[in-house]
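Justification of computing resources. Each target in the renewal requires a structure prediction run like the one illustrated here; the chain below, 245 residues long, is used simply to show the kind of job we budget for.
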Amino acid sequence: MKILVCISNVPDTTTKITFTNDNTEFNTSGVQYIVNPYDEIALSRAIELTEGGKGTVTVINVGEAANDPTIRKALAIGADDAVRVNAAPRDAYFVAKQIAEYAKDKDFNVILTGRESIDYNGNQVAAMVGEFLDIPSVSIIKKLTFDGDTATIEREIEGGKEVLTVSGKFVASCAEGVAEPKIPNMRGIMSARTKPLTVVEAVAVEEVSKVTKYETPAPRGTVKLIPADQTEQLINLLHSEAKVI
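Resulting structure tokens:
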């Protein structure tokens, strides 16, 4: 089994987000980057599925050379090799097109992504890759198992769960529960230094969207604490100040 796992290079979850150039660009100064946590889940499941010589795991990232340390972490976690498409990721369409162009003649059995990246939360890449490659895509899966060439996939739906079977090649985006993220050990960290990391040039893709401006959420307002036994005062404030009743 050959599995391709798509990984994003995202700011650490503790990062303070700021913007530059009149709020048109993300300020990368001092930002620590990590493997997108949802992509780590996908990577961990891919490694589990190929353990014991059952297959190989390749990770792919669309980004510039600054992303290499993040890619090396994915190799330390257990991926066999890596590919970086040498281009700044413009949007989900651009990223998906680059992944599809690389994968189209590589005979991967499965392509896994995280459910979304934690910086843009778009949940678009997996479905777009499936469309570009003309293979099935399943979004936000919670469980993935194989019996021969047939995959059994579980998804949560309103009021229950949905169980699907897929034969042949497919794309899936992974959510919590598919696997527990793995922590690289010393052996993995050392071996990551010598594992192949291939850099390929991006293909030309039409521009379908463009960021014109970023905005941060409005600061939180002040809070008034009302003692639990002063219900009348609370009702009065909700009526006269908050104007919600």
